[in-house]
From TrEMBL, chain A:
<dbReference type="InterPro" id="IPR003439">
    <property type="entry name" value="ABC_transporter-like_ATP-bd"/>
</dbReference>
<dbReference type="InterPro" id="IPR052156">
    <property type="entry name" value="BCAA_Transport_ATP-bd_LivF"/>
</dbReference>
<dbReference type="GO" id="GO:0005524">
    <property type="term" value="F:ATP binding"/>
</dbReference>
<dbReference type="Pfam" id="PF00005">
    <property type="entry name" value="ABC_tran"/>
</dbReference>
<protein>
    <submittedName>
        <fullName>ABC transporter ATP-binding protein</fullName>
    </submittedName>
</protein>
<keyword id="KW-0813">Transport</keyword>
<feature type="domain" description="ABC transporter">
    <location>
        <begin position="2"/>
        <end position="234"/>
    </location>
</feature>
<dbReference type="InterPro" id="IPR003593">
    <property type="entry name" value="AAA+_ATPase"/>
</dbReference>
<dbReference type="InterPro" id="IPR017871">
    <property type="entry name" value="ABC_transporter-like_CS"/>
</dbReference>
TrEMBL record, chain B:
<keyword id="KW-0472">Membrane</keyword>
<feature type="transmembrane region" description="Helical">
    <location>
        <begin position="264"/>
        <end position="283"/>
    </location>
</feature>
<protein>
    <submittedName>
        <fullName>Branched-chain amino acid ABC transporter permease</fullName>
    </submittedName>
</protein>
<keyword id="KW-1133">Transmembrane helix</keyword>
<feature type="transmembrane region" description="Helical">
    <location>
        <begin position="188"/>
        <end position="210"/>
    </location>
</feature>
<feature type="transmembrane region" description="Helical">
    <location>
        <begin position="33"/>
        <end position="50"/>
    </location>
</feature>
<comment type="similarity">
    <text>Belongs to the binding-protein-dependent transport system permease family. LivHM subfamily.</text>
</comment>
<keyword id="KW-0813">Transport</keyword>
<dbReference type="InterPro" id="IPR052157">
    <property type="entry name" value="BCAA_transport_permease"/>
</dbReference>
Length: 234, 289
């Protein structure tokens, strides 16, 4: 469903991505691992339309979205859980979720989707009327994920969902990601915790200095010397 | 006049301040534009009400049928231009001050610098009052308060309960994430700018009901209205209503108990104190974020 071909991205004169190719199929979890500053967040933002690709194509179900303004990309079934969660702290949990269903299609289904999100994360239901800023980090991560699900995505982009969370909470978040993938959504997962990323995903890409340095099934990646050296630190 | 009387009638003037502040507050809070030209729109609104009432002999409130759409377009066009030219925060202060001076100059060309007022014959709200015991409450101010409650209350409900309102609040906090959920900042900005224009039309109409109009008034509104916006919390609609009433009542009480000439001094001293104690405005909920 997602096909990225030859994508470059730059910040002014500095190039951050160089000819990136990758794809994600429905119901598949694909991970991107790589050292700090490799360009993982840039890649996620470029796919989401929040950063303009300098070259290349990004197609979702055959439609090229690379040139669309950021607010139009979600209409093609792409939703993002951004790095650092970025929930709307001054709004209630419920308002954060409903904001996720802003576009007409998602809006029409918002009651059912909201109930599904509460089934997935009962904690959010308990806190529905609380301000999102008063939630714990783990709860905010669940909210960021729930907000993205409210948009009824076919492709979910997750940027470092485990960042700063206790291991038990991370388990919960990853269980939820697995449940989402099982419903047929394609998931592109950027993750610091490489072990976890490799076990959650079926395929993966190693991104180094803006270039795809390795790609393949996660079982193979785990054994590759460059992955072990560059991101597993072994 | 007793202090109670003064507080009551002062609070009623506050309805007008709140109407003037609401539009300024929302565009500042949500779009990061400090739009001083808003005072120009209010002035034009007041003149439109004056002109249409005088020319056609219609009820001043009905002039909104013309002035509200006109100022909606003007407000939307302003936001469009600010957005296109990427004018925010401090720059917007300078640019919109220039626009305000131009507007004042233009209104002076059209209506001269003389004081204008709607003839008593055409203004059913001008001179009558409701008597509450010994307290006389001018109808024009009750109308101002009524519109303030209606407009600000309605705006608050839209912000809290609708998808568009949530979109605007989200946009005010994090534009990038809001965009990723489909919020089109250009369109939203124009709608908000337009609605601010409508609030300016209402404020101008209400002003014309109970006051004489002159171009220089736009400068006189500055201080008090800014105080109301900041005390209410930038972008907080209900806050601007309460702050408007509070500032109106407080100024009137000071004028009665001490001396009218102390009013600005005491008012701004009180505002500075209030902001030292509650830097985000008196009416901002203490949300952790
Ligand atoms: N807004 C920006 N302006 C200029 N350069 C930027 C900007 N954001 C990122 N960069 C640069 O682009 C490169 C890729 O950054 P990016 O944030 O995409 O990396 P990352 O892989 O997500 O890193 P991390 O693991 O720290 O999240 C880095 O060299 C970074 O310094
Ligand atoms: Mg990153």
């Amino acid at each position: 469903m997602l096909e990225v071909r030859g994508v470059d991205a730059r910040y002014g004169d500095a190039q951050a991505l160089w000819g990136v190719d990758l794809e994600v199929a429905p119901a598949e979890t694909v991970c991107i691992v790589g050292p700090n500053g490799a360009g993982k967040t840039t890649l996620v933002q470029t796919i989401a339309g929040l950063h303009r690709a300098a070259a290349g194509t990004i197609t979702v179900d055959g439609v090229d979205i690379a040139a669309l303004p950021g607010h139009r990309v979600c209409d093609h079934g792409v939703a993002t859980v951004p790095e650092g969660r970025r929930v709307f702290g001054h709004m209630t949990v419920r308002d954060n979720l409903l904001l996720g269903a802003y576009r007409p299609k998602a809006r029409a289904a918002h009651r059912e989707t909201e109930a599904q999100v509460y089934d997935l994360f009962p904690r959010l239901k308990e806190r529905a009327r609380q301000h999102a800023g008063s939630l714990s980090g783990g709860e905010q991560q669940m909210l960021a994920l729930g907000r993205a699900l409210m948009a009824l995505p076919r492709l979910l982009l997750l940027d470092e969902p485990s960042l700063g969370l206790a291991p038990v909470i991370v388990d919960e978040v990853f269980d939820a990601i697995a449940a989402v993938t099982a419903t047929g959504v394609g998931v592109l997962l950027v993750e610091q915790d490489v072990e976890r990323a490799l076990s959650a995903a079926s395929r993966g890409y190693l991104l180094i200095e803006g270039r795809i340095a390795a790609a393949g099934p996660t079982a193979d990646l785990r054994d590759r010397a460059d992955v072990r050296e560059r991101v597993l630190g072994m | 006049m007793t202090a109670v009387q003064a507080a009551l009638s002062g609070a009623l003037i506050g309805g007008l301040y709140a109407l003037m502040a609401a539009g300024l507050s929302v565009t500042w809070g949500a779009l990061r534009v400090i739009n001083l030209a808003h005072f120009g729109l209010i002035l034009v609104g007041a003149y439109l009400t004056y002109q249409l009432t005088t020319a056609w002999g219609i009820d001043p409130v009905l002039t909104l049928l013309v002035s509200a759409p006109v100022l909606f377009v003007a407000g939307a066009a302003l936001q469009w231009a600010y957005d296109r030219l990427n004018i925010v925060e401090f720059n917007s202060l300078l640019v919109s001050f220039g626009l305000l001076m131009i507007t004042i100059e233009l209104t002076t060309q059209v209506w001269t610098a003389d004081f204008r007022h709607i003839d008593a014959g055409e203004n059913p709200y001008g001179t009558s009052a409701v008597h509450l015991g010994s307290i006389a409450l001018p109808i024009s101010r009750l109308v101002a308060l009524g519109f303030a409650v209606l407009l600000i209350g309605g705006g608050h409900l839209v912000l809290e309960r609708t998808f568009a309102g949530r979109g605007l609040r989200a946009f005010a906090q994090d534009r990038t994430v809001a965009a990723s959920f489909g919020i089109d900042h250009r369109r939203l900005g124009m709608v908000v700018g337009g609605l601010a224009g409508v609030s300016a039309a209402v404020a101008g109409m209400v002003f014309a009901l109970g006051n004489t109009i002159a171009p220089a008034h736009a400068y006189e509104w500055f201080g008090t209205v800014f105080a109301v916006v900041i005390l209410g919390g930038i972008g907080n609609l209900l806050g601007s209503l309460f702050a408007g009433l509070g500032v109106g009542a407080f100024s009137a009480v000071v004028a009665v108990l001490w001396d009218p000439s102390y009013e600005p001094f005491v008012l701004f001293l009180a505002i500075i104190l209030a902001l030292v104690l509650r830097p985000k405005g008196l009416f901002t909920r203490r949300a952790a974020a």
